[in-house]
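Hi all, long-time lurker, first post. I run a small reading group and we've been trying to get comfortable going from sequence to structure in the token notation. Rather than ask abstract questions, I figured I'd post a concrete chain and ask someone more experienced to write out its structure so we can walk through it together at our next meeting. Sequence below, copied exactly:
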Amino acid sequence: MKDPGISVVICVYTEDRWEDILAAVSSVRAQSYPALETLLVVDHNAALLERLARAYEGAAGVRVLANAGPRGLSAGRNTGVAASRGEVIAFLDDDAVAERDWLRRFAEGYADPRVWAVGGRTVPVWASGRRPAWFPEEFDWVVGCTYRGLPPGRVRVRNVLGGNASFRRTAFEAAGGFATGIGRDGDRRPLGCEETELCIRLGRARPDAVLIVDDRAVIHHRVPAAREHFAYFRARTYAEGLSKALVARSVGAAKGLESERRYTTRVLPAGVARGLRDALLARPGGAARAGAIVAGVLTAASGYLMGTARARHAEPAFSVAPVSTGSSGGDEAEEATWNGQGRPVSSRGWRRGQGDE
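-- Answer (accepted) --
Happy to help. Here is the structure in token form:
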């Protein structure tokens, strides 16, 4: 199989992340496996759209687009998919930088024609310079990073994590786009799970589809100071519960909570035990980490129960629409001008594992 052309989509929404955005784009442009193009999709922010269009005017391989759908990360990603030209579409967070071989590892995954999505490992970069002593690694998904409990290496998963992920173009043709109404919407409540829902939907549309994570495809994700505090931890875990309720409503609780059951019955109890052991050994933060794990489970559970109760008395808060995936250069999205107008399974090298957000 020939090497796939990879389009990289970076969704952006605030000028507060200007330096982060520039660093993200630079990391893509420095890849050992060159990207076909980088698409910056701006979420309903005219000033940022104009500023980025000016910054990248004439830059080869970089396009600046306005989100053509409703406000939010899902619609921004759908806009990027519609405008992209690559056989594979990769997604990178706007406050992350990719290691030099990031896209190369993705491309290697697609050498197996059964693989429809490839994700990678996301490493936190703490604003304070170190992980807070109380923050359990089992909950690194709270800050958009790979969490303790996922198997290492190249493994088959239920879903990839959206800030460091890629999909074949045909995945969107088979399953539609990201569901709007589930994921992030700027600085509002930190919901998530839009890629989880998409991956489960893809698995239903194409039961033969293989989704993998290769932990050699590494990005480094900045964690701002505000997210190092327990208040954000609590808000994010509650929002995750709400999001899981939406996913369960969309795809059913059996599939929607399949990985979560393993996570809560195996990974988290082991984390509590480690924290208590560290406390007995007088190691910093042991008791606090054990307590945070318990608190995180209870808060996520309360969010799930609340979201489930709301869903019984309301119309679905999300929708899934087909995404145009033509390779003509993006007729479905308006491109901005400078002034803003515009386990073992086979010999292929992966094994079955657990994965979710």
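A couple of things your group might point at:
Residues 327-348 have pLDDT under 50 and may be disordered.
The two ends are 31 Å apart (CA to CA).
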